[in-house]
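Write out the 3D structure for:
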Amino acid sequence: MTAAISAATIAFVTALLLGVMIGRRLDGHRWPRRLDSILSRGRRADGSSGSGDAGLPPRAADPAPAPRAVLEGAELRDSDVVATTPDGRMTKAGLLSLIVRNSATAVAVVDEFRDVVLFNHRAVELGLVREMLLADTVWEAVKDVLDTDADLDFEFTPPTSTLGFVSTGRTPRPTVEHVRCQAKIVAQDGERYAVVYGLDDTQHKRLEETRRDFVANVSHELKTPVGAIGLLAEALLESADDVESVRHFGSRVVTETQRMGKLVTELLELSRLQGGDTPEFTRVDVDALIDDALDAAGLAAEAAAIELKSDKPIRKAVRGDRALLLTALNNLVSNAIAYSPAHTVVSVTRRLAIENGRPMVAIAVTDRGVGIAKADQERVFERFFRIDKARSRMTGGTGLGLAIVKHVVANHDGTVKLWSEPGTGSTFTLYIPEDPAHVSPSRTAAARATAAPDAL
């Protein structure tokens, strides 16, 4: 936790607070009225500020039982410190203030009376300070730190905004879901403050959740073939004298081991893709790529009574890793065959396209199968997601094929799109950037014209 919050940020904030306290005593310099009214209020026992300025808020008589409204002047601004020396150079206080104001770490400072006296804008962005109040979770942590003088690490989940729900009818996923915080005491000559540091930990938390789900899914997927192999091995031992039974159970063992081997291979492939580990790209002929994919799927299509068709060559090329692109295309064709009824057609077509303002080659795989419901179309590219688990087990699917397709396309700076209608069929289309060395001037101009309106 301590490592997550930048040690430099803690040092900067502490130095900024202590430096100002010391500076006010050594050279008589006073802060600008706004911040001076916050940090210096209540110097006198009679509750007045002692500054001679009218309207400065008195210091609280007792610690607050609940969060009090945060003064607007508590947000750190460039005018709160003397930023330059008489000769025009930046002061240390000015530099520290600049760093804290622009820090990726949220900072909120609470005095011993539990009033927020200082915060940066990042504290608002991460929800520590919201609608001029300190968030409840942060408030509880600050109270504990002020009461015990002990540093405290805690996690904070910002409240979800309802604005997206009001306008769209559904709750949007927040951009900040987890904030990792640390609260600690800083003090100097009788002045005592609790400083809360907050760091956006959303990506790390999402990664942890993804890894946890991945491990659970992998364990489940491996458990099935391993368990089947164990049962088949027992059956083999019990049928040692029955040649036909041995042959039957032995073939089943081979099938399950092949399934497990395929799963492990695809897991390794997916791990490599997610790590961005791709070989140097070369020129890949699109027509030859499609021919190889159809040749590889020929036997499976024949066994399933599926006819494979393709359109005419376009004599175009893309830049990429041929093995990865062939794997992605093989996965799409294999899925199309597996989810199509007998005596139907699976077709592979190619065309030139402009996608996101760039010249692309679009390769589409179309089947006349069961189709995919709207509710499932957003999830089909997730790892281990299966629409029909029974059919997937029957065909030996691992639930990783489309996840691999997604990552292959992403590593080639392309996209994959899905059109599907239940009862009609599905079309998966790969968009891969065309080889720049062979893009015609007219295609380049068309791509620029398409991108121009988006840039306005």
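Residues 22-58, 162-171 have pLDDT under 50 and may be disordered.
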